[in-house]
């Protein structure tokens, strides 16, 4: 085999592997990507039971209840509409997680309509807002900005 | 004055970058043998520029040290009440400061290259310095026009805002500077590759000049990623050590490319093969570090690290990225055919194994890259998605597993051509270890697939790493080979840590009143008391938790829930108990309405091996550099000696009569 042919073979092998990786990535991404839902979207067209998704919205005032074991909480997440999705989570709550604050819950919808969260992301400093919450209504954004802006303007 | 000196130094450095570019280009245009009058300025320009850029960074460091509140950057990112060490590390805990650090390290690397590298032909060196100057110029422009770190406030602020408490940590002191130095080391590799390509000097000599830079950058990236992973592990309080967060991926991608480049540059140096491939990897590695800088600095991704959000800056870095990378690939496309083919090799040979693993590394890089960028692409079509471990873990494992298998055998093969039968014993040993471990773990319990495979591969690789030493006299093994053995062993150690954390971690989450005890595996965890404590710029709730293993002595852990007041933020300080065989990890949560406290504890067997492995890998890299330098020095001495002898001989031989 000549040097030139060998180079061609190498190039072909590398291309095949990398295109293969690309195709596999595309296939896996379409299956594994974690879609984001607003409460009204989840109420209208719920994801399949057990499929990993993210749910983002506001923790409804007065809905946060801690169970007797002290580590499981139930609350409702609301968005811009009427829809409110019940969420159940076991674990240590994010540092600034309170009623009325924005939250993104990672987890999946159960057969009984409760969203079982495996992880909660809340704003945890004055600059960080879960990306999905950036598009919330002006009123909510203003409210969020008001209680998060500190110091110099 | 501090700010003005710093700013002036930056402008002067930018001017010198222009001079370096012009002078380097002049050297390139001059034909072989002749010299251009302008060509002599490239090296001094690079060196003086390094001094100026470092001076600018020192000035900013000084401004942070004395908390000069008339400088906008200090006022918005520092606070006079902060401990001194965090005042200093705060210098690069923000966008402008970290970009200045980037540029400072870039200029320093350019200066070192200009001052130390004497082996390459002058034309190649000129082209290299011109490219280096061009890169530096782009970043000076970025700093001066869109992120000036020395901007003054019209009225000095009364008090600073402070630094994000998550970043007030010793991890921050080490993590970004090492990563940046690694990124920037790859810029030198890129400049060298471009220089060699432009002057058609892609040969082993060039590979030997490039290798220390690639190795150095790779060592720093390894250390940076290791430190970053440990920082996220104990500071974020989630108990995880790798989140596939876009910012983490941004540091992993250049590392993957640099790992491939490091191996391919070794093939080029030793065997004069893989010429174009090495150049392409050089371009790819630097592209990935530019992309990493873009992802982190532009705020295009929102994550825990995103403390800079400014679209204008993002556009600027994106433009730089497109100019450099587009330019590089254009030159590559135009010049590739001019690079003559290297030496041939058989499929079963050390080169063959290295090529295979290079391709696997590139495939993993593609997987990580697509997974990182996919949410951005999806957002353009108004779909909000996130991509996490369920994608990254299996997709990268598909390519990582064959890579690890080849990595176990590859170093045993001969260069150029080999027969599998020659390494039959070693291959059988590796296969036996792999299968035995898999069988034992599978019989022991029901564990997830990937960690089980990881354990098997770790056992096989851990032994395979030392097989290249078999039958050699240990005292005569070159230092660089020890480096390889150590680095490969480090991979096995790290893999063991990851797999064992994935398979055997035990976790307990409970609400407990003081005095209560919970059980977790063999551990008894008692909450002794909860009390408020205060630090220099925070107050906290501190729990005293006694951990007892069976009948053993109780050890007290003190996890805290901290509240910082400038800026106002709450963080969770985990408490760690390190044993040789693992770590106990405790976090305290909120108080429940009935007065109990949330306590979360994990026992993570061998989790520390992840980072020990990382350190071993880096140490292996350091040994490789030392070994290469030793050989270089020896070679140079031998050459000098040879010349002296020849001169002596010439002096002794009588001149032929006219």
What is the typical, i.e. mean, pLDDT of chain A? 75
The gyration radius over C-alpha positions of chain A equals 22 Å
Biggest β-sheet of chain A, characterized?
5 strands, mixed, barrel
User: Helix-strand pattern of chain B, N to C?
Assistant: HHHHHHHHHHHHEHHHHEEEEEEEEEEH
Structural class of chain A: alpha+beta
Oligomer: heterodimer
* Strands ordered across the widest β-sheet of chain A: 2-4-5-7-6
The proportion of residues forming helix of chain B, as a percent range, comes to: 55-70%
N-to-C terminal Cα separation of chain B, in Å? 72 Å
Tally of strands of chain B? 11
What's the count of strands of chain A?
7
Sheet-strand content of chain B, in percent, reads 5-15%
Rounded Rg of chain B: 27 Å
Could you list the spans of chain B in which at least 5 consecutive residues all have pLDDT below 50? 303-309
Biggest interface pair, counts: A-B, 48 and 67 residues
What are the defining features of this structure?
heterodimer; A: 153 residues; alpha+beta; 29% helix; B: 658 residues; six-stranded antiparallel sheet; 17 helices
Short structural description:
The complex is a heterodimer of chains A (153) and B (658). Chain A is of the alpha+beta class.
